[in-house]
Design goal:
By secondary structure, the protein is of the alpha+beta class. It contains 14 helices and 31 strands. Helices cover 29% and strands 23% of the residues. Strands 1, 2, 3, 4, 6 and 7 form a six-stranded antiparallel β-sheet that branches. A six-stranded mixed β-sheet has the order 18-21-22-15-23-24, with helices on both faces. The chain has a four-stranded antiparallel β-sheet with strand order 13-14-10-17.
Length: 566
């Protein structure tokens, strides 16, 4: 520690690149400071720093990491504490560019495994960044001394030691995540695809603010009696709520009565949430996938024939490609790709679906014969998805009662509360039989798996690897921009960044015979064994866990993608 201070002070007024000499490991009284990478310029990405505390000194007992769920929750809780302390204690604004920055990967409402905080039996390790200060492009040594010897110790001591944390809040975080994981694992054995706890707070601050709506008028969720189930959680004891069974479930009701809010909560139920989020015990199957139309996306070699065939000019839809998809072709491809990836629950909202993909009513069938219509609407395939492929669907539908006859369950939202409308919907369907003709045939059809070609994946830009995430749903991979604006279950830019590196890492598994799903499985095995750190050539604290589905969807949206079909 003393040597580091002496070294820093000796650099005063020197050119910025002299900071490179600080790289190394330094012993402080209760932790080790490791400077892994020093930025070359005050405007460049901040320097990568680590702090390591021995597990014994940190004071976290074994029961804080007694399960994978608790370990992830503890890392998340410490990340939030560290980030919060950075906001409080790091003064910032110590010169030009990023001078004075001390920060860590910013957590979101969801609890994700990250590289920002790592815990094993020996150490607790924080990975963060610091903007080394400069005046002009000259080293401001005194400012760096203040950052490392005044601000950083406050951050570390208040975020990485059990003695400094609120024990009750810590254990609440661990137990909440452990219970949510238990709930999610229990769905299948109960014949359910989703669960929404009584008293859950589903509405958010806004469409761009995912924090819970802190408004006394917000309505807490209450399960309709026919759907109410209970679970005995390991930590919280008995919990009750709405269990959504396998099959085809409609969410109906008037506009602005909470249908889409409920669906949004369920699509993010593949993740755990922090205590106080309101959606802590809203869970869905891990293989749940949100489907929507995505005009203008690229499609490469996807079998969309269950939904679209007999295109003009005899265009093949068993291996369909386009650089500019329509609403209906994109939605068909999104479903086919989800099935190819192993989805067992599809979530759809009519507001973000292509109308002609969802329904063709009797009058339109009379005017435009089936021989002239290449689209088989989803209404004629949704039951086959369940009966023939064991894929359930939850569908927000406010505009077409024709779906009543296809549904196993109908939940009506009225003033943000659900009621069971299954019997009523079935009676209406029987009393007012639809005149429309079924256009789906007897079988759903096959989805042919695809094998990605290695030459698709070149991360180089001007002879150097260039992989970044400009936005939460964009990846820059070499010269290719992967636009994932329609992949709604991505919640954190650190997930997107990790997917970019994962695409490069996955090339080693593309041997010309493995399907895209098999490549994703090999990648997942590697990440589970070696950690997210294995995706990058250097240690970094800004990667977060992602599902195989989002990895596959990113690959599918590469405009350079080439595949062979099996």
């Amino acid at each position: 520690m003393d040597q580091l201070k002496t070294k820093i002070l000796s650099l005063e007024g020197k050119g910025y690149k002299a900071y490179k000499s600080l790289k190394g490991e330094y012993r402080f009284p209760r932790y080790r400071l490791i400077i892994d990478h020093v930025q070359g310029d005050p405007f460049a990405a901040p320097s990568r720093i680590r702090v390591k505390v021995t597990r014994e000194i940190s004071g976290f007992p074994e029961n804080t990491t007694s399960s994978p769920s608790r370990t992830t929750a503890l890392c998340d809780h410490l990340t939030r504490a560290f980030y919060s302390r950075c906001q409080k204690h790091a003064r910032g604004d110590r010169g030009i560019g990023k001078s004075g920055v001390i920060t860590m990967d910013r957590p979101v409402q969801e609890v994700l495994r990250r590289t920002s905080m790592v815990i094993d039996h020996g150490y607790v390790e924080a990975r963060f960044v610091m903007g080394l200060p400069a005046r002009g492009r000259r080293i401001a040594a005194g400012e760096l001394v203040a950052m490392i010897f005044q601000e950083l110790p406050l951050i570390v001591h208040n975020a990485m030691f059990m003695e400094s944390l609120d024990t009750a809040l810590l254990y609440r975080a661990l137990e909440t995540v452990e219970d949510a994981d238990f709930l999610r694992r229990s769905l299948g054995e109960r014949g359910l695809v989703g669960f929404v706890a009584d008293n859950a707070l589903l509405p958010r601050q806004s469409g761009i603010d995912p924090r819970p709506l802190n408004d006394e008028t917000a309505v807490l969720f209450a399960s309709p009696e026919p759907f109410r189930v209970s679970f005995h959680l390991p930590n919280h004891g008995v919990i009750t709520g709405m269990g959504i069974p396998k099959g085809v479930t409609l969410l109906v009701g008037g506009g602005y009565h909470g249908k889409s809010t409920l669906l949004n909560a369920m699509e993010l139920g593949v993740y755990n949430h922090v205590p106080g989020d309101g959606r802590e015990f809203v869970v869905t199957l891990p293989s749940a996938v949100k489907i929507r139309a995505a005009d203008k996306r690229s499609i490469t070699g996807v079998d969309i024939s269950p939904f679209i065939n007999n295109l003009p000019m005899a265009r093949d839809t068993t291996s369909f490609s386009t650089a500019n998809a329509s609403g209906s072709t994109s939605q068909a491809a999104n479903i086919s790709e989800a099935l190819e990836a192993g989805a067992k629950l599809l979530l759809l909202d009519e507001d973000t679906s292509a109308t002609n993909f969802m329904i063709r009513d009797h009058r339109m069938q009379q005017l435009v014969s089936k021989e002239m219509e290449p689209i088989t609407p989803f209404i004629d395939k949704v039951r086959q998805l369940y009966t023939q492929r064991d894929v359930s669907t939850i569908l927000v539908m406010g505009g077409s009662g024709d779906y009543f006859s296809k549904a196993d369950h109908v939940i009506c939202m009225a003033e943000y509360l659900p009621r069971d409308a299954t019997g009523e919907a079935k009676k209406i369907a029987q009393a007012d039989a639809t005149l429309r003709l079924n256009e789906g045939g007897d079988r759903f059809g096959d989805i042919k798996p695809r094998v990605p070609k290695q030459e698709t994946f070149d991360p180089k830009r001007r002879s150097r690897d260039k992989i970044s995430a400009p936005r939460t749903r964009e990846i820059l991979f070499g010269n290719t921009l992967i636009d994932m604006w329609d992949v709604e279950q991505l919640v954190d830019i650190s997930q997107t960044r990790a997917i970019g590196y994962a695409i490069k890492a996955a090339v080693q598994f593309m041997d010309g015979s493995r399907t895209l799903k098999e490549v994703a499985e090999c990648l997942a095995d590697t990440v589970n064994e070696k950690g997210l750190e294995s995706l990058t050539p250097y240690l970094t604290g800004d990667l977060a866990q992602f599902r195989s589905f989002e990895f596959i969807f990113a690959v599918n949206r590469m405009r350079t993608l080439k595949v062979n079909q099996l």
